[in-house]
Design a protein that fits this description.
alpha/beta, globular, about 20% strand, single chain, 11 helices
Length: about 350
């Protein structure tokens, strides 16, 4: 048996190791909302997990790394099967997370890079309800998705501005767009009638914008729509928008996430990155950071990334790139810009139609 001094030394070392590692361990998820911006290549998918157990998927499309290409603009390679994204990324990810049912799936608009991975998902994982844009899709794959939803008796709701729902733990979701009278003649009506959803938990708000473009932004600004949010999913994978500076002023985000992958479109546009930097917004992008995980207790915000450890600017990764490999691998840590304390306090929700209580 070890002598008493040796036992005391071992105990002291163990306590020291525990104290050191405790700085890298993630805060408990109890009482916290978690949003995971999943790395789906050139597309968008985000999982929202509420403390009461409610699970919501916002979009579920994307494209696996293009076959035979370098990922650089002008070298796209051959596109893969959109449904393959669901089979190889979304469904395995959800199962690894222990998710056996989704209470709600929201499809911002009927483009494959936002819904394609849902084709196999609705067959593999039960879905309580689906929320879609009223803008009719033109893709046969979208028709197939709605047919599969009907075959599995998944209720499908068309959402318009002014609707909202909530669950018992305090999470609420507002539909801010599209208007009841859809935008027409914009050059891309499907994009410009995307769902805009704002998730609120305590004093923290997260804004999902689909693929809205200048026409939708101008409509929102003219209508003086309340867009305030702490975390912004940058519209249209960071595509260039002349009205982005005004949009950022209306949203006033602290953090922004760009869901993007290798693409021939030049996303994210340098002007978009410059506008975000000018606005003082910390930027994360899934092609550089991998999955971006946001956790909030309603006031503070923690950020976790699975690849690069810090936010980026036009010129690249900012901050201390000499952070330990533990942080680079995605452990929670006390690094900028987390935790973040929002400077605004949101007023109470307006009187809005409650059309779905996902806590039941």
């Amino acid at each position: 048996a070890l002598a008493r001094p040796a036992r005391l030394l071992i105990a002291a070392l163990a306590a020291a190791i525990l104290l050191v590692w405790s700085g890298f361990l993630p805060p408990s998820s109890a009482g916290r909302l978690t949003v995971t911006f999943i790395d789906v290549g050139q597309g968008s998918a985000a999982l929202v997990e509420a403390p009461c157990g409610v699970k919501i998927l916002v979009d579920g499309g994307g494209e696996l790394p293009l076959r035979g290409g370098t990922g650089e603009p002008g070298q796209p390679g051959e596109p893969g099967d959109f449904g393959e994204l669901g089979e190889r990324v979304l469904v395995p990810f959800l199962r690894r997370q222990g998710i056996r049912r989704l209470d709600l799936v929201a499809v911002s608009h009927p483009h494959e890079d936002h819904f394609g991975g849902l084709l196999p998902l609705v067959e593999a994982i039960p879905v309580g309800r689906m929320l879609i844009s009223p803008s009719p899709g033109q893709s046969p794959y979208y028709t197939t998705l709605l047919e599969r939803a009907a075959a599995r008796q998944i209720p499908v709701e068309q959402a318009v501005a002014g609707q909202a729902w909530a669950c018992s733990c305090g999470l609420s979701v507002e539909v801010l767009f599209p208007p009841a009278k859809l935008l027409q003649g914009t050059g891309s009506d499907l994009n410009n009638n995307s769902l805009i959803l704002r998730f609120r938990y305590g004093e923290t708000a997260i804004l999902f914008c689909g693929d809205i473009e200048d026409a939708a932004v101008r409509h929102l600004l003219r209508a003086k729509t309340d867009l305030a949010a702490d975390i912004l999913q940058v519209p249209h994978h960071g595509a260039g928008m002349a009205s982005l500076p005004q949009f950022l002023q209306a949203v006033n985000p602290r953090l922004a996430v760009i869901p993007v992958g290798p693409n021939p479109f030049g996303h994210p546009h340098p002007q978009t990155l410059a506008a975000l930097e000018e606005a003082g917004v910390a930027v994360y992008r899934t092609d550089w950071h991998g999955a971006v995980i946001v956790r909030t207790d309603g006031s503070r915000i923690w950020i976790k990334t699975l690849l690069a450890p810090g936010p980026i600017t036009v010129t690249g990764v900012t901050g201390d790139n000499s952070l330990s490999p533990i942080l680079a691998l995605g452990w929670w840590g006390d690094r900028e810009p987390s935790p973040v304390t929002p400077e605004r306090a949101f007023p109470g929700l307006p009187e809005i139609k409650l059309f779905l209580d996902i806590s039941r």
